[in-house]
Amino acid sequence: MPGAPHHGNRDGAPLDATRARRIAIVRFHLNGEPTAVAVPVHWTLLELVRYTVGLTGTKQGCDKGDCGTCTVRLDGDPVLSCLTLAVEAEGRAVETVEGLGVGGEAHPLQDAFARLGAAQCGFCTPGMLMSASAWLDVLALADDPTFDRATIARVLGGNLCRCTGYTKIIDAVEAVARELLARREESDAPVGADAPDSQRAVAP
Amino acid sequence: MSAGVGGSAGQTVGGTPGRIVGGRHGKIDAIDAMVGATKYTDDLSLPRMLHAKLVRSPYAHARIVRIDTSRAEALEGVHAVITGADMPERYGVIPWTPDEQALAADKARFVGDAVAAVAAVSEEVAAAACQLVHVQWEVLPALTTPAAALASPLRIHEANKHGNVTKHVHLDFGDVDAGLRDAALVVEGHYGFHGSTHAPLEPHCAIGWQDAAGLLTVWSSTQVPHYLHRELAKVLGLPAHRIRVIQPAVGGAFGGKSEPFDLEFAAALLAIRTGRPVKLLYTREEVFLAHRGRHPFDMHYRTGFAADGRILAVDAKSVLDGGAYSSFGLVTTYYSGQLLASPYVFGAYRFDSTRVYTNKPACGPKRGHGSVQPRFAIEVQLDKAARALAIDPIELRRRNFIGADSRTINGFHVGSNGFLECLDKVEEASGWRARRGHLPRGRGLGVAGSTYISGTNYCIYPSDLPQSGVQLCLDRSGRVRVFAGTSDIGQGSTTMLATLVADELGVALDDVRVLAADTDLTPVDLGAYSSRITLMAGNAALVAARDLSGKVKAAVAEKWQCAARDIVLCDRRAQRLDDPAVHVSIQQAFQWAEAKFGTLGSVGSYDTPRQDVHGDYRGGTIGASPAYSFTAHVVEVEVDEETGDVRVLHCWCAHDCGKALSPVLVEGQIEGSVYMGLAEALLEHHEAMPSGLRDDGRRRDPGPGRDGLLMASSLLDYRMPTALDVGEFHALIVEHPDPRGPHGAKEAGEGPLHSAIPALCNAIFDAVGVRIDELPVTPAKILAGLRAQRAAAANAHRPMPATPTGSQ
């Protein structure tokens, strides 16, 4: 994978690596901002966010869809940006870890991860946050908001972590999810009445 | 399960009021990681930066007849091509075994050995140019096992004096033969430990750049900036003061980034040659090739026990599969025996360890360097002895406890020792007494114990300089700046320093700014290896902080006309000990001190004790540490007897870290260690294809890219556990403060890995009566063990559980 903007061959010698490639203009929403960038058509979304707009929070861990560190949200869904062509973002909404906070406030997940020790080296963290935040958004609207730690493990199953053993990551996601459900019960009594008892109490 | 949401990571809750040490807080730099602001090496870009790629050998063993780089050089966009001839100086992280070259010049010794490097305008062009580098090879037989390497007249390193043996250690303590003769029970068996690798999620990356004044700067994802600094100077032939090494944030290391690699040398030389910054980023496959992971061990152990379970003698023989280079192998070979003689009393002890070169990626230090493999063997043997002698396995371990302030048979002084409390805690938390023996078949509990070092007593090169230095400055705004050479690789050394300094100087964690791991700006620390930073850099930081807190207190005392000892610094203020209502902001206190003493700075350093720490014999210093951590694990498994699948349901790990300076971080180290140990036992295997075998197991002619090719060099094939593959981990902190640690602190990052693995295997035996003496645990081995068990039961008409497959 190229690690830098492509430079065409000045002499036009036909070699794959130096052959000028078609450039596409991609118009999309990036973390809420209307954005237009020019990228070689063969570039991935990961290359676009890291090298074109300079959002290096999204990581490259394997470049072939095995590790999940490159996870971003495309129209709300978590996707592996290393397996997604940049041009697929056309007309869609891309969210990266840099856009996760709301109005200058940290997303509750960011706060919980930081406080509860869910990040050690931090390299998997952006991808974890994007997968977990996508699930929380679904949970907030789900007809049946039941979940347990195994649910969270499934949500994070595509994101490898080498440091934590996942324990504190699941702790952090669980804490935020429980608070979200508690708020939902307060504001939405019918749903709250249907919601099963928490398997674990929400910590103070 | 834990505290809720809200507040900042730097906010401390719990612990002693007014104190930061021991309170629950996150990492001070955590929020940067949360918003994607943490800069790892690959996140850095410099103007006009070029990109480099390495040309790697497709053969496991092949002489380089000649290299033609002309076609690569002619490719548009290529700025420089270098080969081994450009950096012929041999180096090695252990100075006694300099058997590596930045780029191999004479021959390739494993599939993936780098022989040339290209700098170009993009990675894509550099990769294309690599294809145009023509290497003429003379292919040699690939020696892919220690047995083949020991038997062959062919030397992997021609200059090595002892054939393909890289290191042999034989040490004898006491009369082992008499101990075995007098034993009521001798447990003898063969134990196999397979290779595994660190697989940090951040691939290695380096950037080189030489400025107009000639200063070479290398940014690297290293965990040992100081050793990298030294080796760059040696290989590039530059004086050390012309080189600056900066370690940006590192995305995991686990020992896999603890020596210099081809990429740092190549990026540096290409930067010098081109006059432009050069970045070299490994692909994921290259991370697997760089390796330096867990050595495969073949072990034969004979251990003699008295009828009451006391260990009378241990006779250990090990062959270590070293791979293509020495790496830290000299130390590994010693550690394979030297770190075993605690937490149990050995009546007599002998070990004989031989490390062998093979044509595979070099092995080195992975978390629990050199002592995880022997720990597996001895702890499984203890379990066998407990069964044979009808003693509870926890009780058997208690009976052999070496004690605090004791001396191992190989001469190491053990200070604080919380091993018994570790056993108590896992026994209680797991419900051991009530549940063990009463679980249904297929479920089992296993126990094991271990110890590890809090740093090595000696630097890896001869030195009488301190192992760690820390420099502090107080700011008029009430902030503290810490300059330290320490490498934060995710374990939290930056937070550890801030915790100690904030606690001593009465500021909040958020008020401490740590600038770490920049050889131009920070004092030397030897690096993030052997679990040394908390004890060593922590002590250095305390020395420096106490110097400044003394000055601040003296200045405040002068204002208040009282004694300095009557002043307390805490909660961002200075106050009277006897009357907390009398106080002043810490900012004001710092300013009074600056007015009195001038600009406020201090330095602290730490060096290890030289007296009464280790034995007085050749090799007696290797494995010695200022303080030792202790660990006990209980693992609960469920074994599916139809499929052979093993699931870990729970792992309780009690770890004596002396004093948990930051309990949240200590728990994280325990959980991460448990994860990594169970992962390598159950799922992971860093394995190369043996020579002369085809995929279908039949012999074939040697060809390119087969002999010695890695069989799992992606994160899909190398089966790192996902969140779905792990059990519930229970971190139990035990605190037996050691007089040599800062506030009594010892290590927490590596010890909690060791005994997870034998505890798992002992639990499997408890569950289904199958012994796993050869790792990894696989369904096939479980099923084979169950078949053997049924056959034995049918023959002997004996009730279950039947004789285990291993010897006893």
Radius of gyration of chain A, CA atoms, in whole angstroms:
20 Å
Low-confidence stretches of chain A: 1-15, 191-204
Q: Provide the CATH architecture of the largest domain in chain B.
A: 2-Layer Sandwich
What share of the residues of chain A lie within helices?
25-40%
Spatial separation of the terminal alpha carbons of chain B: 42 Å
What is the CATH topology of the largest domain in chain B? Answer: Aldehyde Oxidoreductase, domain 4
**Average predicted local confidence, pLDDT of chain B:** 95
Described by strand count, sense and barrel closure, the largest sheet of chain B is: 7 strands, mixed
Determine the CATH superfamily of the largest domain in chain A.
[2Fe-2S]-binding domain
Helix content of chain B: 25-40%
Order of helices and strands of chain A: EEHEEEHHHHH
CATH class of the largest domain in chain B: Alpha Beta
CATH fold naming of the largest domain in chain A = DNA polymerase, domain 1
- Beta-strand percent range of chain B: 15-25%
Seen as an oligomer or otherwise, the chain set is heterodimer
Order of neighbouring strands in the sheet with most strands of chain B: 3-5-1-12-9-10-11
Radius of gyration of chain B: 27 Å
The overall pLDDT of chain A, averaged over residues, is 87
